[in-house]
Amino acid sequence: MPTLSHRRADVVVTVLDSAGHPLADTDVVVAQERHAFLFGNIGFDFVGPANGEGDASETSSAGSAGALADLWLDVFNAATLPFYWGGFEPVRGRPDTARLLTAARWFADRGVVVKGHPLAWHTVGAPWLLDLTTDEIADAQDARIRREVADFAGVIDTWDVINEVVIMPVFDKEPNGLTRLAWDRGRIPTIRLAFDAARQTNPSATLLLNDFDMSTAYECLIEGVLEAGIQVDAIGLQSHMHQGYWGEGKTLAILDRFARFGLPLHLTETTLLSGELMPAHIEDLNDHQVASWPSTPDAEARQADEIERHYRTLVGHPAVQAATYWGITDEGAWLGAPGGLVRADGTPKPAYDALRRLVKDEWWLAPTTLRTSSTGRVPVSGFLGTYTVDGTAFSLERDGEVVVRLEG
């Protein structure tokens, strides 16, 4: 089992009183407030409630929005919000900016890092792109990216810039503007257009290239992108395991292959089922359509075991910076699959409890009373992240020394 030494730090905190004098021989309470590692989930379920749409206390089949939010916020510190162009701007010139900005601020106000997904993708495309020429599509895509990155700067500074480009030029499930653009101009020029627009608009943003294709085709694409001088801040790897858990061996092999580029890895879309697995012969997960896909007790136990193993593997790998689970609840889940961590009735599954034990127990420093030395020093050891000493915040980033001056 990995030691997780790359996730931890040992520091000596010198505690000063509000006047700047060492707080000697005094009991202080040290507590962890937030992980540096990004434990993420989608925030789609909260866009409506954040905008006051419906009664947040009203109980639906998924329980109250407030109760679901409490479960979400108790484990996760990073949210992905939906920017699918066809839903965000179905009518040209009428983007859903206000609603998404309100939702993004709702998360940010609670200390959650927010990511937008995606700025460019061939699926759920804006229907009005079909009426444009290729050059007009390129101009519209460029303008769309610049608008969103500018409008949300300071609230959303992390973006899945372009999604699933390996398949983009040959995607044939539905007509769309981005496939035509990628076919006519090529994958790398299309990626350059998207990244240039985002980078020029917000130079400090964290910009991801994201894909579900874990084959060498994605590696070759990344090589080409980097050789072309396009600055990618992190590599997005999707891990929808509707057909079964990858296992530690396959997961580590994938992480090692993509870690060779020297960029942080974000597991951007992870699902593990608590019901019957999708048949192995299905190539496109979207092709599997069933009338009912229930969560079952035996499969819930399997999901809990697999989610613990999967997160231990991810956190144990030094290249992984973030892991986003794709759905808090089964209610309205992608493909109708029982991939959520909370049942449709609002009750947590064993997988939720398993992940919470890792994030907020095993990998967490609960409030601890420590006594300072005669010079006001106290040792603190814990996972990288944000901490407080008697309510005053400090960061645990690396081994060394930290000085904290208490407030008031």
Automatic annotation (TrEMBL):
Enzyme Commission number(s): 3.2.1.8
InterPro entries reported for this sequence = GH, GH10, GH10_dom
- Annotated SUPFAM superfamilies: (Trans)glycosidases (SSF51445)
Lineage, top-rank taxon, reads: Bacteria
Going by the UniProt record, its keywords in alphabetical order are: Carbohydrate metabolism, Glycosidase, Hydrolase, Polysaccharide degradation, Signal, Xylan degradation
Q: Ranges for the GH10 domain?
A: 53-358
For molecular function, the Gene Ontology terms on record are:
endo-1,4-beta-xylanase activity
Q: Which Gene3D superfamilies match?
A: Glycosidases
Record-stated family: Belongs to the glycosyl hydrolase 10 (cellulase F) family.
Name of this chain's protein: Beta-xylanase
Q: What is the protein's species of origin?
A: Cellulomonas humilata
